[in-house]
Amino acid sequence: MKPWQKIVLYFVIAYFVLLLGPIAGFDLPRIVQDIIRSPSVLVTQLLVGLINGAIIAIIALGYTLVYGIIELINFAHGDLYMLGGFAALTVMGAFGMQDGAPFVTAIIPMLVALLVSAGLCAGLNVLTERYAYRPLRNAPRLAPLISAIGVSFIFQNLGLFWGGLKSFIPIMGNTAAAPKSFPDLLPRIDLLEAMGIQTKVDFTLKDLIVLVVAVSLMVGLNLFIQRTPAGKAMRAVAQNRDAAKIVGIDVDQVIVMTFLIGGALAGSAGLLVGLYNNTIVFTMGFTAGLRAFTAAVLGGIGNITGAMLGGVLIGLLSALSDQYLSSRWTDAWVFGVLVLILVFRPSGLLGENLQEKV
Amino acid sequence: MNLVKTLRSSSILGSIAALTVLLFGGWSGAVIGWLLGTAAGYLATHDRFVPTPKTGAQTGIQAGLALGVWIMAASLIEGLLLRPLSGRAAIPLGQTWLYALVGFGLAVASATLMAAIQGLANPRQRQATLLTLAFILIIFPFADRLAQTGWIATVIQIQIFAMLALGLNIPVGYAGLLDLGYAAFFAIGAYTTGMLSSPHLGIEWNFWIVIWIAAGVAAIAGVILGTPTLPLRGDYLAIVTLGFGEIIPIVFRNLTDIRIMEPISSLLATLFNRPEMAICLLGCEETFNLTNGETGINRSGDPGCRSLAASALIITCRGTTWCWCWWCSRCL
Amino acid sequence: MKAPLKRSVLTLSLLSLCVGCAGTTTTTTTTESPAASPEATTAASPADSTASAPTISTDGDVIIASSLPMTGSSLGQTQTIVNSIQLALDEVNSTVCDGQMKVGFRTFDDATAAAGKWDPAQVTSNSNTIAADSKIVAVIGTFNSGAAKLAVPIFNPSNLLMVSPANTYPGLTKPGTGEKNEPDVYYPDGKRNFARVVPADDLQGVIAANWSKNLGAQKVYILDDQELYGKGIADVYDKTAKEIGLEIVGREGINAKASDYRALMNKIKDLEPDLIYFGGITQNNAGQLIKDMRNVGMTDVKFMGPDGIFEQALIDAAGQDAEGVYATFGGIPPKELTGKGKEWYDAYKAKFNSEPEPYAAYGYEAAQVVLAGINEVCEADRDAIRQAVMETKDFPGLLGTWSFDENGDTTSTTMSGNVVKDGKWTFAETLDVK
Lengths: 358, 332, 434
Prior knowledge:
The structure holds three protein chains of three kinds.
Chain A: H1 3-20, H2 28-37, H3 39-70, H4 77-94, H5 103-133, H6 142-163, E1 180-181, H7 191-194, H8 205-227, H9 229-239, H10 241-246, H11 251-277, E2 279-280, H12 284-299, H13 304-324, H14 330-344
Antiparallel strand pairs in A: 1-2
Chain B: H1 2-24, H2 28-45, H3 53-85, H4 93-117, H5 122-147, H6 152-174, H7 182-196, E1 197-198, E2 203-204, H8 207-229, H9 234-254, E3 260-261, H10 263-272, E4 280-282, H11 305-315, H12 322-331
Antiparallel strand pairs in B: 1-2, 3-4
Helix pairs in contact in B: 1-2, 1-3, 2-3, 2-4, 2-5, 3-4, 7-8, 7-9, 11-12
Chain C: H1 2-30, H2 38-50, E1 62-68, H3 75-91, E2 95-96, E3 101-109, E4 111-112, E5 117-118, H4 120-132, E6 136-141, H5 145-155, E7 161-164, E8 194-196, H6 201-214, E9 219-224, H7 228-243, E10 247-253, H8 262-270, E11 275-279, H9 286-295, E12 302-305, H10 312-318, E13 326-329, H11 340-352, H12 360-377, H13 382-390, E14 395-397, E15 400-402, E16 415-421, E17 424-431
Parallel strand pairs in C: 1-3, 1-6, 6-7, 7-8, 9-10, 9-11, 11-12, 12-13
Antiparallel strand pairs in C: 2-3, 4-5, 13-16, 14-15, 16-17
Helix pairs in contact in C: 2-3, 3-12, 4-5, 6-7, 8-9, 9-10, 12-13
């Protein structure tokens, strides 16, 4: 293509984006005006996007870890995270936590909830691997995928059942399918204001705690993968399973460990979301799972840094879209960007250019 | 050997039939006897040599009798035990026997007929079998209404899902491309039908015309999605189709207030601060509601009686052939 | 040749089995406590334990059906409507025409667990089932206006009457309030077969806007859940608010499936409204909206919604953040009723040992009006019953005496404003259209 042809093509594309974009909220002049009118809200939205992105990234890590090792899209992962939320809510109920309980009294229940939900999800994930995926390891690729979708339905209905146990767990509210109110335990103190800086930017202690926990989970995982022998074994299996077997790595054990870690991450994400959004509902696994999966693919599935990057990008994108485009079009923009990026970079942002394994 | 086989085949079909009768009661025994009788007649003769229609009929009668006994027993149990025990209004004894005997008779008759057909010479055997199946398909809705079983809605759902599965089988099964956004094309076809055959946009075309347009639009959408994603492999293709499958419902849900302004003129209008310069292309006075949002387009074209009669009038009968007029008088 | 044929024969027989299964599930969902959804049974149990021996049968000479969302958080509301209908039937011992005819009652669930609220496909399939059953002479429902939009045209050709205890979207009955072709598009056969015992949103939206102004609001941000009902009432609110001089700082439809609304709420916060009006229902994530509104620090901004959030489920979903949320309601809450209404309230509490939700009164009212219609006709004749009910005049109801006008709308216009106080909806004031 000659340069002038390219210019004309870009012009035509830009024209059509400007022509049709406003339908989906992409109204450039208005967006520019909005940014100029109130730059502080941009900062606030970036923070919101960052925190939501961090939570998405934790779930995305579970997808990417499993995919890296056995090349399976574990569709049940999102619902596992939902069950983590339910486990955390149950623990909170057992400790009698309620909205606005003092932060100090909530520390122990939160730690217990972290252990319980991470443990439960890790256990469930390992069981799933053992009984739903391992028997299909040498089956055609579609078989474990369908199996994963089936497990996801089972988990979802498990969540529905769990939500209906109001006679044992009063905190579950009145109806099974209704959203559950998660006790609001993290104080909503505006940090900048507390430090005496008067801004319109909103950053609360709650945001900070969630962000710190999420980031430390990710850093911890990265250290584990990069620095420990077990992490090394995982990387080896991800690179070449047969070669790993030859050098004496117990592949089955590594796979179990992968599912264990992925499950634990999903469980902790369930707790974090409970604490941050204060709502648990049995259908939340699907939406969150979809976003997290998108994040994993966006970053290059199988790549751990990529999953984190993808999660944060999606968080930022949806926050900015809510602010400047239109909140009801946000999901369309998120997936639209995903499709575009994949069309131009077929293996995601950081993914290596793999040939399809036969 | 023969006996064992008859019993075996009848135990499967028979238990299905009996279960149905126990659940539905009434004339359901007759309908299920007719349907499964045909199946039994076919299964009894399908993998053996049947020299003449007569020998076929003999085999078929055995299968039909076995099935009929199941149905009759179930009908009697339902009428005499289950119904009173579950507290529903009892039916007279004669009526119960009528249900049982008609079910029995239809099972035997249809099994005999189907088996006898298998004894015909080859090209005719095939034709006759297909003809019988076609006959069942055409008659079923009427039989269903007559017998008040009310299965037709479920049967239609089954057929729609079967069609969807057949369609999905092409990319996933034949081409090995994992398409997770297949339902999007279903939505595209449905919305095309809705827009073109409902009062929503004031276009009320006949369903039997719109269905082809809907198929075409969905196919074009498939090409549009397919072309750029062709270089993608395996799971990346899966995620792109998944994304597409997520985008389409959002788009349909949100295309409710469209206003399209020509961008260059509106840019100039902003620069010179003269709003009247902006050229509006669509939805100027009132925003254009294409898809009717969350509520959806309803009362879309009806493939049934009225629409069929109307299209039949347009396409086939300018004059009046009696059959269509019977249709028309029934429906219009 | 033979192998594929054999397969198709087998498939056919399997299909017939499937028909059997599918048929069974339908029958189970039509019975009173759908065993398929666990919560329906659990929620019904407290009612069952205190009620006297169940006199309501699902079968009779004529049958009244209800079509309500009985899965998801609407259940709290719809269960009390069903209880109310049962109460009305119990009072006449399930018979009409001096004991000549037995009246049966069947409940249909138009919600699915996956949706957590009413589901269009479920509404359509239920409506087809109901229309096909000639014993069913009247339907009490639906709960959601979007569902009515689907159900009414299906019932119309078979002259089946539907009386709604809760649909408030104006366009369903009133010409000139909604789309251009409304409401005629819902009545393909020309006859009206839909009536409602609640005042429509063209009144409620106006009242909400007036009340907002009285509460001291000046700048308002309007959200809606994009459904027929929610968007409809938000439109009315929008229009009225402009007329009475409130400043609308923005308007947006929310994505009801989103997991959080922090970004949206930050956007709204930046525009500094002093009231957020949400046109929508609890089941479209109203709880999360309220939570995130408080989460981003809008603690003294008011939140107001229509009757769609006026239920305990909202407080369950929003927790402590629900405190101070306002809701308008097209009537008077059960507790505040007087006279005949008070008698009903006491009878309800005595029978079911629980508080009726706001729409329970209308469930009772709808059942009463339908029973009166059947009593007049004394035959399983859908059209006659339809006509009798549509012509109801000067009916002595729980909210006073009212009639159906020529559109099938109630002439009653008394409404109320309510507010959440100490984790409970409390009556604030009576509002009337001026």
